[in-house]
Amino acid sequence: MTYHPKSDFIAVMMERGFLADCTDYQNLDEAALKGGMPGYIGFDATAKSLHVGSLIQIMMLRWLQKTGGKPITLMGGGTTKVGDPSFRADERPLLTPDQIDDNISGIKKVFSAYLTYGDGPSDALMINNSEWLDDLNYLDFLRDIGKHFSVNRMLAFESVKSRLDREQSLSFLEFNYMILQAYDFLELNRRYGCVLQMGGSDQWGNIVNGIDLTRRVLDNQIFGLTSPLLTTSDGKKMGKSADGAVWLNPDMRSPYEFWQFWRNTTDADVGRFLKLYTEMPVDECDRLGALAGSEINEAKVILANEITKLCHGADAASTAEATSREVFEKGGVGDDLPTLELTREELGDGLSIVQAIVRAGLAKSGKDAKRLISENGAKMDDAPLSDAGLMLDAAALASPIKLSAGKKRHALIVLKG
């Protein structure tokens, strides 16, 4: 559709590619114009860190704050006990309350890099939905809230329908998730005046449910806005790399590896990712994205630097770039490569090269490591590695050893003491 926004927030959402759909462009635009508009995104605590698949949502909250709105990061301490079934083929494993609290502590760390929390009109709030979900009385909830939901309508939502069409089990526990998420929006509106929920386009049904419930119970007008479900130009889901999830917390994915993930962006994605994941002017994002040949590689370095600055700080970005240039351009070791440190006790009589590759994070299993070697994809100190039976002993580790998987993934093995 063609809509000409009046507010900075909607303008940014549209011109930078964040907007997939909206329940009411005009009235949301008017609400954003007034300033201090509270808007939220929910994050379930299924792991100790979010990964780059959540970064588009975090950037939406950051832009909401930068354009005068009030972001709310809703931690799913309550809903994580149920598990979101949206577009999953199986039920999520249930976590204990202690595991959930531990995960929330880990997830909170990343938000402070992107948002300013406090008591001001546009300062962010961090809220846990266990605040209202943990003490719900089941019978009261069924009578007061459950009566507003049509099972026929819930069955028609794509997230549920796709699971049932494949004849995959959907537990009653999971089926209740969309009711709880709708109730979150109602409570955030009641307690904090929140008028906007944002999320990926797979959350559209859940968001609409919350808007409908709030209208029925409180007779308040609230809004929903979704972002596209992002895949890379080669069809891969954002958030994953060859060796697993690209976590945002530095203790789960080093800033160098994070930087390298973005440096390895395919040419076709550079302009789009600059607009979504950095704050560079849109014209400059388009200019860099249109470069070709060796010039596009420098655009990728800018992309990696800008995203890493936001997530891990300027020092981490410049160190990662310096390490990358050392490794790729000069064939050196680099000070900031992922490092496996071994004690002499751990090393014992020696460590097989296969286990070294696995423990350094360059392969998921011994089988993967052997295949890497047999396909000539492994190197040791930049020399091709062909002997899967090689053993590394103390003499071999007298100085650090650099292992490589392909051209882009490297690690060090260091013997301590």
Set down the secondary structure blueprint:
Layout: H1 8-15, E1 21-22, H2 25-33, E2 38-44, H3 55-66, E3 70-76, H4 97-114, E4 125-128, H5 130-133, H6 138-144, H7 151-156, H8 158-165, H9 172-175, H10 177-192, E5 196-200, H11 204-218, E6 223-227, E7 240-241, E8 244-245, H12 255-263, H13 270-277, H14 282-289, H15 294-312, H16 314-329, E9 339-343, H17 344-347, E10 351-352, H18 353-359, H19 366-374, E11 378-380, E12 383-384, E13 391-392, E14 401-405, E15 409-416
What percentage of the residues does DSSP assign to strands (E)? Answer: 5-15%
For the record, the CATH architecture of the largest domain stands as: 3-Layer(aba) Sandwich
SS elements, strand count: 15
Distance between the termini: 65 Å
Q: In percent, how helical is the residue content?
A: 40-55%
CATH class of the largest domain: Alpha Beta
Question: What report would you give on this structure?
Answer:
- This protein is α/β, with parallel strands linked by helices and 417 residues long.
- The protein has helices at 8-15, 25-33, 55-66, 97-114, 130-133, 138-144, 151-156, 158-165, 172-175, 177-192, 204-218, 255-263, 270-277, 282-289, 294-312, 314-329, 344-347, 353-359, 366-374; strands at residues 21-22, 38-44, 70-76, 125-128, 196-200, 223-227, 240-241, 244-245, 339-343, 351-352, 378-380, 383-384, 391-392, 401-405, 409-416.
- The chain has 3 domains: 8-227, 3-Layer(aba) Sandwich (Rossmann fold); 254-329, Orthogonal Bundle (Tyrosyl-Transfer RNA Synthetase); 339-416, RNA-binding S4 domain (Structural Genomics Hypothetical 15.5 Kd Protein In mrcA-pckA Intergenic Region, Chain A), CATH 3.10.290.10.
- Helices cover 45% and strands 15% of the residues.
- The strands form 4 sheets. The protein has a 6-stranded mixed β-sheet, sandwiched between helices. The chain has a 5-stranded mixed β-sheet with strand order 9-15-14-11-12.
- A hairpin with a 2-residue loop joins strand 7 (240-241) and strand 8 (244-245).
- It starts with 7 loop residues before the first helix and ends with a strand.
